[in-house]
Amino acid sequence: MKDAISHRLEKLESHVAHLEHQVEQLNEVVIEQGKLVERLKKEVQRQSAVLEAQEFERIKANNPKPPHH
């Protein structure tokens, strides 16, 4: 009986160790993805600013001021 309980305990400990390792790996992935999301957000903001400036310049070029100004 003690051997069976000991064996079950060892098996449970092994499973817990494996799960802890998986959680650590998943946490690393989540951290890396968070960093990537932040970089991509900054890039999208930068690209949006560039496009906005280009659109503003296009509108200005298509709507010249009247000659008396």
Please name the defining characteristics of this protein.
rod-shaped, mainly alpha, 1 helix, 69 residues
Query: What class would the helix/strand composition place it in?
Result: mainly alpha
Can you count the helices? 1
Count of extended strands: 0
> SSE string, helix = H, strand = E?
H
CA radius of gyration is: 30 Å
- Helix share, percent: over 70%
Give the end-to-end Cα distance, rounded to a whole number of Å.
100 Å
Largest sheet: none
Percentage of residues in strands: under 5%
- Average pLDDT level: 93
| Low-pLDDT windows of residues | none
Shape: rod-shaped
List the helices and strands and how they pair.
Layout: H1 2-62
Structure description:
With 69 residues, this protein is mainly alpha-helical. The longest helix is centred in the middle third of the chain and has 61 residues, at 2-62. Helices cover 88% and strands 0% of the residues. It has one helix at residues 2-62. The protein has a domain at 25-61. The chain contains one helix and no strands.
Quick overview:
By secondary structure, the protein is mostly helical.
